[in-house]
């Protein structure tokens, strides 16, 4: 019996499952558990989930053979701007190059050192590397940065300058270094530099998370390899993830798609995962998630990281509910900001929440901040992070939760509080869809009475005529639930349209689409239908997605373990590593193979292809072993690009790709097996 432990850190919950790999044809989940995610320190929630799932069974901790983690840390850090200060070493770039791909905006106030050097498209040195200037600039930095990103012109065609700079930095500072050629073999140097900058900033965060997880595993008595889910759903070892954390962006959504395919056996489906903060929708084709080969976009940055293609909206069980004006009508707006449900806030701060809600309900006139609370997290903001006004508000809170109306006593203070929340220092508690489910007796995990009071307050808000927007809490709760169903249906449709090649935005709101789902009939028969099922995931999927299916007239599958599908996906994935080699022709009849540490020339294409394939195969296998793979299989493909001129084929370029895949190595396996 091989017992595997899968863990997923979401916006609200951290999930854990124990998986018996040998049970049945595809293995089975023997226990699952949840713990609240501790956003200020994800390791606390991870430890709670591990403890809880072990208590669910009689499995001895020492019987666990593998642990696999999917995490939102990298994604959230990029979105929220919580990253370390780094220095970008730019080799051979013109200033105009640095202005492309949003690179300068991403670097922000962090230092940039520009030095002469770099290569051309054929891998020949464009200019000698100016090591003297580099040494002086590095000495001037002192200890002001936490790591380095190194990016050179055409570094994927010749890595020599990036490697020389990396070696110098490690020798003189000992700090972590990310070279752009390590993350992508593609051209577009500015975007590769951007990816290396983001990776360098994340190294400290992911390193700390993995170390904390390893400590909890040791305390729990678990001595097993730790894997991390990559953004494409494949697994990598924790050691690889520490150096290449950028590859863990979209780790959580990727794990959910892999989990959905495993739990349902669906070869083709639309997978929609509604979490606490976002809803992520992806397409499964032939049993695997569709990838965004152009590079994942996160936090507004288009990276060079190959990850799953997702459509995402800021809609979840913890989305803050607000009002919005549509002409002469007042509607509800869900998200994108995540808030702590009032029903949960009342569990942690019962006296504060109930006393203030009761006081606000006794007033005749609704207030702008009714039903809202500010909860500071137990963290210390780093020096220079806060403005003067933000610091004043932070100091006044003194680490204690408070009603927003007692803090936001002026426009300046209200703005400062909003910024403190955006910086991850304060959480706002407010009415959310989770509270609506408590009011309707669909959800009962926390304090229903607080949810009732909060929705009763919210229902008293006025529309443009001065009337209350809802007669009571129950009516408002039903409107909120229907709003979630409509928004969920729209994002599923948008994903389907995009997958079919329709790139126009908001097609789900098009008049013809609306008419089709309203079953309107006339001279034209309008019909739109999904040809694949919708797989609903997330703790609240069983509530919302049957209604989504009814609205769209689509088949819906909500697996029994929908609430922990991400953790299942984390543990059933495979290791998959890729090695690519480019062949160019700098002169007629001279074929050049571009390897990571050298270039070599050949007189024939077959000789060049032979060297490239041999290296790609060996390198992919080495990468897979380092990433924690066992029973490795390798597939090599050739992409030889030629054009035909006057009846003759002219060589342009060739790309050799080797993909090595295997199952994760278990604790009982030998340390190396190729």
Question: Could you please describe the fold and organization of this structure?
Answer:
The protein is of the alpha/beta class and 674 residues long. Among the domains are: 84-199, Rossmann fold; 319-480, no CATH class; 574-664, Translation Initiation Factor IF3, CATH 3.30.110. It is built from 21 helices and 31 strands. It has a six-stranded mixed sheet. Strands 11, 12, 13, 18, 25 and 26 form a six-stranded mixed sheet that branches. The longest helix is centred in the first third of the chain and has 31 residues, at 189-219. Mean pLDDT is 88; it is low at 670-674.
In summary, what is this structure?
The chain is built from 21 helices and 31 strands. The chain is α/β, with parallel strands linked by helices. A hairpin with a 7-residue loop joins strand 2 and strand 3 (28-36).
Main attributes of the structure:
674 residues; alpha/beta; Rossmann fold; Translation Initiation Factor IF3; 6-stranded mixed β-sheet; disordered C terminus
